[in-house]
Structures are given as C-alpha cells and as structure tokens.
Design brief:
The chain is 41% helix and 19% strand. It is of the alpha/beta class. The protein folds into 2 domains: 253 residues, Aldehyde Dehydrogenase, Chain A, domain 1 (3-Layer(aba) Sandwich); 182 residues, Aldehyde Dehydrogenase, Chain A, domain 2, CATH 3.40.309.10. Strand 3 and strand 4 form a beta hairpin. Helix 2 packs across helix 6 and helix 3 packs across helix 4. It is globular.
Length: 455
C-alpha cells in the first residue's frame, strides 16, 4: 500500500511512501515500549537538553520545512516559517520550564514524609491533523516526551512527508531510537493501535466525529484521552467596540492558514450600531488578500488542503445563500487546477443556515446580526462548539468579565484574536473536546500524578 501526498495548488503528486506492514507496525510498538523502559529513567536534564536541540534543528531547517508544508497542504511560505518558529519556541519553553513543572511537591500530612511526583505512563499515540502539520505534533512532543513518555505519531494521510520530517528532527537532535516514531499507517489501523496494551494513552486533534471514534475506542480500553476538536469561534463586536483594530484582528484570525484552523474566527456577531460599517470594512479588508501559489512569498492565502474540502465548503456557502444569507464577497468556486477558494463574506446569517451552526473550515466569514450586546453573547454561546471566543469593547473591565464568566469556550480573548501559547493551557468544551494542551495543565495530562506516603 502506498501513501501519496499531492500538491493542492496543482493537483499533482508530490511523493509516494510505502505504508507500514503489519510486521513493521508490530516492530514499532515493540520498540516504543522497550525504549520507554530506558527513557523513563533518563535524567530530566538530559531530556530537556535534547528538547532544546530539537528546537535548534527546527530553526536551522525552517525554510525546508516551510516548503514541505507548502507542497503537501498548501500553506504559504511565510506562515510555514512562522509555524516552525513556534515549534522551536515550544521546545525552548518546556526545556526551560520542565524542571519546575515536574518538580516533586512535598505535602504536609501526618506522615513523616509525603509528596507528589509526576511519573511517565508509557507510549502515547498522537493522531494529528494536516492543517498545522508541525505545530500540532510539537506541542505534544515538547511536554509529554520530556515527561519521560515515548511518542507514536499517526499523522494525516496527506502530509506523510511532514510526518517523516518530524521523526528526522528528533533523530538529528539525538533522541534515542524508539523514543519518537512516525507510523505510516491508514486510519483503519488506528483502532488496533489503541487496543494494544503497550499503548497507554491517546491524544487527537481533528474533527468532532474523529474525536468521538477515538474516544469511544479508548474508553473501551480504559485509556486516557485528550481531544482538541472542531470549533466555530464567535467574535462578539459590542456596541462600543473600536472597529479598526477589531477588523484587523477579525480578518487576521479568519484567514490564518487560509481559514483552515480550529481556532480561526468563524462567526462575527455584530450589534446594530456597528453592523453596516463592520460589513463594509470586512469586505474591504478581505478583498485586499492575495490568493495564489503558496511558494510565492507575496501570497496571503494558498489553496485549501484538498479539493474535496474546498467543495464541501462551497456547498455550505451555497446552501447558506439559498437560505437567505447575503454574499457580499467571493462565494464562487474558481475554475482551473488547484483547490483554491476566494475570501468570502456572508452577511445576514441566521439560525438554520450552515454558516450559522456548522464549522466553516476555509476563508469564509459569517456575519450574524444581534439585537444588542446581551443578544450577541447569547448567539456566541448558541453553538455545539466551545474552543475559542473573543469579545471587542472599549470597556476592558466589562470585556474581562464577559470573557471570564459568560462565554462558553476554553480560550477567551478580549480585544485580540485567539491563538495558542506554550505558556497557557489550550483546549475546549462541549463538542470541541476535553483535556488541555500546553502550559502546566497540559503537561500533566499524560503523567501519573503519584502520591508517596512514608510513615
């Protein structure tokens, strides 16, 4: 069986790779559990030293990795270089912070000595998506491999070159054999890997249906999971919002990675005071974005990752317009090669339309009218998703209160667009998943938080 990557800008094949045989998969699993026996005993100082080295490898080769992402999933070069720089940052962060994060903690009890220690649990399977093919993986590697676990990567089938490149980064950094391995396998084999007793936990970033399938299988096996799933992030534009910076944040967030991001802004909820001006400014800002070859540094938006994903997005746009949404910009599927889709703005979006209730995974902005500020907050929470949310207002204290207490999402920002940061926990609620990545809280997801009590 071959796993082939294709260039979404041209539709041409990039490279084919031989998928793992059952025998090769068995060897990888055996190697992972064997490596764990040694790696868990390695000093934390050595583990952080290797993590820092991985960050250096990423920095030195970021141009190569950016080109690979452009070829396999259409990310513009500048965004690709930025992604690799962020991967290097998360490596540096945990290399510096791991000693304090995983430090043994004494607890006063009636024992002569009692403490909590953070111990690795074993091989962890990471099922990762194509949209940020390096970042999604390194935000798993940095805390969890440094904790003493070993990693097994099942990457999306359209980015096999990126998956193997990540394994090569770890090799170049000096990690022992088996500490991190890429599994070039199809999705049908994932359930069997989860069932294998040598695999102790699973983390997945992807769609809500994929998350439910993995969580169901892991639940049958009583294995811990962390799920970062879909999102339809609302950006609430209150009546007193300052529109110029708000529009800048909204457009930047909506078009990150061509709109193919779980935490991209997707629903723009606007009150009557700002609605007409917001629509005008949004169209003007989106119009100025250049769609084109991801290998051209002048390109703002590359192709979508696959033609079928582009076609699904277009169907959502068409269905929303047929249901009464107004298409202010774009909305037409280009002819010719490549999975391109233009920046699109839909206004007058209301309940029942795909643009209201579904995730739009591409460069399409849905503007939803609200009666007033309270109604805007209600609409923001009227979603099965709860990954990110943002609120824009001149009253920062009020914005803080809304973000902290009223918005149903795992990551709530005030007067800024939602993004992940190695220093802060990241994750969602409702159908956007559970568990956390990054920060201290993310680092503790795949460790045995062990109590030791000594009389």
């Amino acid at each position: 069986m071959k796993i082939t990557s294709s260039n979404p800008a041209t539709g041409e094949s990039v490279q084919s790779y031989e998928a793992m045989s059952e025998a090769a998969l068995e060897t990888a699993l055996a190697t992972s559990i064997e490596a764990f026996g040694e790696w868990r005993r390695e000093s934390l100082s050595k583990r952080t030293e290797l993590l820092a080295a991985a960050g250096e490898v990423l920095e030195k080769r970021k141009g190569d990795y950016a080109e690979l992402m452009a070829q396999e999933m259409g990310k513009p070069l500048e965004e690709g270089r930025s992604e690799i720089e962020k991967c290097a940052w998360v490596c540096r962060y945990y290399a510096e912070q791991a000693p304090s994060i995983f430090e043994r903690r004494s607890v006063e009890t009636d024992a002569s000595k009692s403490f909590v220690t953070f111990e690795p649990i074993g091989p962890v399977l990471a099922v990762m998506p194509w949209n940020f093919p390096f970042w999604q993986v390194f935000r798993f590697i940095a805390p969890h491999v440094t904790a003493g676990n070993t990693g097994l990567l099942k990457h999306a089938s359209n980015v096999p070159g990126c998956a193997l490149a990540i394994e090569d980064v770890m090799r170049r950094a000096g990690y022992p054999e088996g500490v991190f391995q890429t599994l070039l396998i199809g999705s049908k084999l994932v359930a069997g890997v989860i069932e294998d007793d040598r695999v102790r936990a699973v983390t997945l970033t992807g769609s809500t249906p994929a998350g439910k399938a993995v969580a169901g299988k892991a639940g049958e096996c009583l294995k811990k999971t962390v799920l970062e799933l879909g999102g339809s992030d609302p950006y609430v534009i209150l009546a007193d919002a300052e529109l110029e910076p708000a529009i800048g944040a909204c457009v930047t967030s909506r078009l990150i990675n061509g709109g193919q991001s779980c935490i991209a802004a997707k629903r723009f909820i606007v009150t009557p005071e700002n609605r007409d001006e917001f629509e005008t400014r949004m169209v003007a800002a989106m119009t100025n974005k250049k769609v084109g070859d991801p290998m051209d540094d002048a390109t703002d938006i590359g192709p979508m990752a696959r033609a079928d994903l582009r076609d699904e997005l277009h169907e959502q746009v068409v269905a929303s317009v047929e249901a009464g949404a107004r298409c202010l910009l774009g909305g037409r599927k280009p002819k010719g090669p490549g999975a391109f889709y233009p920046p699109t703005v839909l206004a007058g979006v209301t309940p029942g339309m795909p643009a209201y209730g579904e995730e739009l995974f591409g460069p399409v902005a849905a503007i939803i009218p609200a009666r007033d500020d309270a109604d805007a907050i209600r609409i923001a929470n009227d979603s099965c998703f709860g990954l990110g949310a943002a609120v824009f207002t001149r009253d920062v204290e009020r914005g803080e209160a809304i973000a902290a207490r009223e918005l149903d999402a795992g990551n709530c920002f005030v007067n800024a667009f939602v993004r992940s940061d190695p220093r802060l926990p990241f994750g969602g609620v409702k159908e956007s998943g559970y568990g956390r990545e990054l920060g201290d809280f993310g680092a503790y997801e795949f460790v045995n938080i062990k109590t030791v009590y000594i009389r």
